[in-house]
Amino acid sequence: MNGHRSSVLGLRSKYNSLENHNPPVSQPTTRTVAIVLDPDFSSRLASLAARAAVWIVDSPENRPAIESLWTARRTRGAEYDVTVFRTIPGLSPEEHVDGVVRSVEKQVDPDDTDATVRAIEVYGGDMTDAMRSTFHARGFTTLESLGDGFRAQHGGKR
Questions:
Q1: What is the DSSP string of 18-84?
Q2: Is the dihedral of CA 39, 83, 136, 121 positive or negative?
Q3: Which domain holds residue 149?
Q4: Quick check: 18 pLDDT over 50?
Q5: 71 — alpha (psi -120 to 50), left (phi > 0) or beta?
């Protein structure tokens, strides 16, 4: 994958810079990130965003739900962390996931244990050998099916 193509266009909400990024007290200190490749995931976005940071593919179907959560965050101080990315023609689902994972890793302070990503859930993508390889290379050694996706769990101390 070329370097310029490898950075999936993470388009953070303009409101993210205004938010305090500390997790609510009720959340566990291990962080889960969800990557949504499904362009028709909108009806499930709010429940997923209530328990995990979400990177979701931009689509006409997903956009209203995304904007609704951004509005709730801005106007009511909701704790949603939703990032939008666009698919890049010619890239496989595995390459998109790899790009998102690298973007997530760049944002995490290795000394901040509250921000350490211990699990990544992928929706709208299959658990292929290439996908397994992407996660295993980053220390996510346990992969389990979720029915409409899969969960990769980090196997050791990061």
A1: GS--SPPTTS-SSEEEEEE--TT-HHHHHHHHTTSEEEEE--TTTHHHHHHHHHHHHHH-----EEE
A2: negative
A3: 3-18+26-154
A4: no
A5: alpha
Q: State the CATH number of the domain containing residue 109.
A: 3.40.50
108, with CB counted inside 10 A (0-12, 13-18, 19+), is middle
**How many domains does the structure of the chain reveal?**
1
Q: How remote is the C-alpha of 44 from its chain's centroid?
A: 14
User: Which carries the bigger pLDDT value, residue 1 or residue 61?
Assistant: 61
C-alpha separations of 72 from 39, 53, 67, 68, 142 in Å: 22, 15, 9, 6, 34
Q: How far is 71 from 1, CA to CA, in rounded Å?
A: 35
Tell me what percent of the residues of the chain surpass a pLDDT of 70: 74
85 close to 55: Cβ distance less than 8 angstroms: yes
